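**User:**
My hope is that you can spare some time for a protein that puzzles me. This is the protein in question:
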Amino acid sequence: MRLKLTKPLVCFDLETTGINTSNDRIVEISYIKTFPDERIEKKTYLINPTIPIPAGASAIHGIFDKDVVDMPTFAQVGNEIAQTFKDCDFAGFNSNKFDVPLLAEEFHRYSIEFNWSNARFIDAQVIYHKKEPRNLEAAYRYYCDKTLVNAHSSMADTQATYEVLISQLEKYTDLSSDVQTLSEFTRQNNNADFAGRIIIDDKGVEVFNFGKHKGKSVEQVFKTEPSFYSWMMNGDFAQNTKQVITAIKLRSFGK
């Protein structure tokens, strides 16, 4: 089934210096622009982000500082991209949460005018998750070829989870059966607290993972804005989170 287009659809993807949509920068952008008459236009830009590309990011997308040192900056190509994307709808994978907000931030950073108000956004990841449920019942059916009876009773769910885990280890032969390795593989972030409000970045620094200070050093924020610590301690945060930020604050007294 072909897409029914009333205006061009731009499917695009970004490779970046990181995952912070406010502070990270684009190092590569590729797009496929499909027109209502079925014409297709494709292009890729390598972009000098003007800041170092962290090793962790380079390990994922394979783009290093040396690859972009002679490439144009977003300030130089942003207007061309904006003109190409003008009056289009957009599609991507996790694009509503990541690619679109980060691209919008880059336009804003360089005062490039872009009107998003009439655009429509399709996120293929959302379709995937809605059409292919990612819950225990679905996993039990997929990995164990069984139907979960008494779902949401604790023992039935526990038994199913154990069987799913064993089946995953049998199915994915590249997965290690070592608990430490599996723990690292399944960790979404390097959390400093259980709730994931504070995470540890690739430099080993505890940073906020929420709110206005997201991505900033906890220790530095508490030094420059002591009231933020008080606000968290008096707020509706888990006790474990409060223990973690208190330890960070006490540690900073010795410096």
In short: Residues 154-171 form the longest helix (18 residues).
